[in-house]
Design goal:
- The chain is α+β, with helices and mostly antiparallel strands and about 375 residues long.
- The chain is built from eleven helices and 15 strands.
- Strands 10-11-15-14 form a four-stranded mixed β-sheet.
Length: about 375
């Protein structure tokens, strides 16, 4: 077992819950998995260290002992109750589930399972759209790098003219037996064969291009149809455009995440859009025909007399088109705000005073009701 703090190995806080520990383990195990670093001994050692840490921290009882006694709880020389095989040869049932979901194959399973079809990983890319592109749809060129079958070895991992052989260490089983003696007793357990990494196959002469991995990188570009009505944060999945699988496994998907730039005027709410329109005092009092901006240009709208600031109006069908619908669209809802003029001359202010004096309480019903309610006046 490693001398490093196990929480540090997984990069989590000592108060991390089980889900956080598992998530950290998934991320780190995927990063350092030997299949991705076939000739990197440092990555292989790191991978084993991560497994050892997770084998303890994922088990509530073992985690409790580690929290109380540290590494001494698993050191037979220190009188621990678990023995020296704890980190490397514990219960790996959960690890099998995790690696099944991450890499498409079992961890520590049979060679047949390890050599079975393995689905390729999904690839995520991000594209940025304007507000109008998201509203009405568009076509975008998407470039990315993916893993595909090696052009030299055809995915076998073996150099041209050679082939994989049955592993001499495990004789094709993908596992080897480990015997450890403690206190006069022998403990026997099985572990994944390190030479073939559980596949049962050994490549004496790895492909010079892919180094035995069977996959190589390729640059790819696609013209993608962005549907009208897509929203910020939504995703588009292009099936089988991700990394190619192994051993006949299906390819992963290309997952495109959409980011939409904010609009200068409009704010989106579902399939509706909203904006604010300024009105002059005269337009609000007398009514007026004004121009309202839409995503497709300005339209004329008649503002009624005596319109109050904060009043909202709706233009049906001028919002965002519904995804996968040719005719259905949201609405445009605009709110009017009456703008008080600034920089008036003395003469203009005089006209306003005359106007104010000519208006009685009946012209300001909201103000009259407010003060009647405030001071308890009765009609």
């Amino acid at each position: 077992m490693t001398d490093r703090d196990l929480y540090e190995v997984l990069g989590v806080d000592r108060n991390a819950d089980a889900d956080t520990i598992k998530k950290a383990y998934r991320n780190m195990a995927k990063k350092y998995h030997p299949d991705l670093h076939p000739d990197d001994k440092e990555a292989e050692a790191k991978f084993k260290e991560i497994n050892d840490a997770y084998a303890i921290l994922s088990d509530a009882e073992k985690k409790d002992k580690y929290d109380r006694f540290g590494a001494a709880a698993f050191d037979p020389a220190a009188g621990g109750g678990y023995g020296g095989f704890e980190g490397g040869f514990g219960d790996f049932g959960d690890l099998g589930d995790i690696f099944g979901s991450i890499f498409g194959g079992g961890f520590g399973g049979s060679a047949q399972r390890r050599n079975g079809p393995r689905r390729g990983d999904d690839i995520g890319v991000r594209i940025t759209l304007t507000f109008e592109e998201a509203a009405f749809g568009c076509k975008k060129d998407v470039s990315y790098t993916r893993l595909c079958k090696c052009s030299v070895c055809g995915g076998s991992g073996a150099e041209k003219g050679t082939q994989a052989q049955t592993c001499p260490d495990c004789h094709g089983t993908g596992q080897r037996t480990v015997i450890q003696r403690m206190g006069g007793m022998s403990f026997q357990s099985k572990t994944t064969c390190e030479k073939c990494r559980g596949t049962g196959k050994y490549i004496p002469t790895p492909c010079s291009k892919c180094r035995g991995n069977g996959l190589e990188k390729e640059s790819k570009s696609l013209k993608v149809n962005i549907p009208a009505g897509i929203n910020n944060g939504e995703r588009i999945a292009l099936r089988s455009q991700g990394n190619e699988g192994k051993n006949g496994g299906a390819s992963g998907d290309l997952i495109i995440q959409v980011a939409v730039r904010p609009h200068k005027i409009f704010v989106r709410d579902g399939y509706d859009i909203a904006c604010e329109i300024p009105l002059t005092v005269a337009e609000a009092i007398l009514g007026a025909q004004i121009e309202i901006p839409t995503l497709e240009g300005n339209v004329k709208f008649d503002i009624p007399e005596e319109t109050q600031t904060g009043s909202s109006f709706t233009l049906r069908g001028k919002g965002i088109p519904y995804v996968n619908s040719q005719n259905r669209r949201g609405d445009l809802i605009f709110t009017v705000n009456v703008e008080i003029p600034r920089g008036l001359s003395d003469k203009q202010k005089g006209h306003i005073r005359d106007f104010a004096a000519s208006c009685g309480e009946k012209n300001y019903s909201k103000k009259a009701k407010f003060f009647k309610g405030l001071f308890g006046k009765n009609d």
